Each structure stands twice: as C-alpha cells, then as structure tokens.
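cron nightly-structures :: item 1 of 1
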Amino acid sequence: MIRILLLVDCANDFDRNLLRGIVRYSRENGPWLFYRLPSYYRSIENGERSILEWAKAWKADAIIGQWNDDAMDLLKELNIPVVLQNYRHRSTTYSNLTGDYEGTGLMAARFFAERLFRNFAFFGVKGVVWSDERCKGYRGEVERIGGTFHAFETGKDSEKSRMPRFTSWAVREPSGAKITAMSPELRKDTTHTTTDAPSTKRMQ
C-alpha cells in the first residue's frame, strides 16, 4: 500500500477541500495509507528535520503539503515524490500545488468593474505567492479600465495588531470603494471594520 505523508492543516476551506480531493483521488486510484501532521510540527524540537526523520522511519512513498525549509533537499534525502502547497513562493525543486492566482485577481476586479465600481482596494498578505499574484492581477485590471487602485498588505502580524492599522487605512479610502480581501481571515477583518466603525459604513 502506498504511504502518503500529509503536511497539511485543516483550519481553512482550502486545506479541507485539498484533503477531501486527495482522499477522493486515493479511493479511485489507491489504496493509499495517509499520515497527517499539522502545522505545529514546525515548532517541535529540530522542526522540519524531525519530520524528515519521521518520513524515513515510516517509509513514506510521497509527501504532499507545505515545506518552508529551502536549505533541506527532500528529494536528495528521501528520493520520493514531493508535491508542495504554495505559500511563500513557487518551488523550483519540487512539484507545486498551485493555481492561477493572477487570473483570480483579474477576475475579481472585472466582476466589480462590471457593477460600475471605480474605486478598488486590495487587502492581502505581502510576501506570499497567492496574495502577491492576486494583487498583481487585480491591480493590472483596475489600471486597464482606468479605475483607482489602493492596497493594504499586511505581514504575518496578529489580528489584534493588524486591526487598528487596517481600520485607519480603511476610513481613508474613497466613499464606495470596493475592498477585496484575499483570505477568510482577512475577509473577517474587513467585515468587522466596515460594520463596527461608523466612518467606514459608507463602503460597499
């Protein structure tokens, strides 16, 4: 039986749908045996090196998931297929689980442009591939149609530290600006801000 080590969380819709898809595929092409390790494995002693040793001990036939240690060559260490879920950047070494992020941003901007919005605001996470490329596609389409583009890109800060800065930014946006958030967590921040802050209720 093929053994697949999954380095995937299940905290958001994307990860849950990814896991469902992998299981569905295994039912049609398996049987496969799975072992899943959530993201906290990075904080354990020796971090990702411990996961490498576990993969060897368990005799994994493949790895699917997130892997951020570019200095560690999984292919050389394990000699098994490795498919990575993009986060910071696309891997040039391993197979990538990725998407048309730039096209997604373009599609979002076009959707609101067709509804006659002229002011567009982008709320994303700087330095991660899915947000950076969505921002590029979103901005490119806004500029193509002659709209006004604004962006607030946060780092990996917590919601508590992010919210005051986002609220301050949001209230300065033009009336009727469409804020497009790039993740469920950021959409929650947007909803709280536009609902709770009286000066931002004018946003749509």
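cron nightly-structures :: done
The two ends are 53 Å apart (CA to CA).
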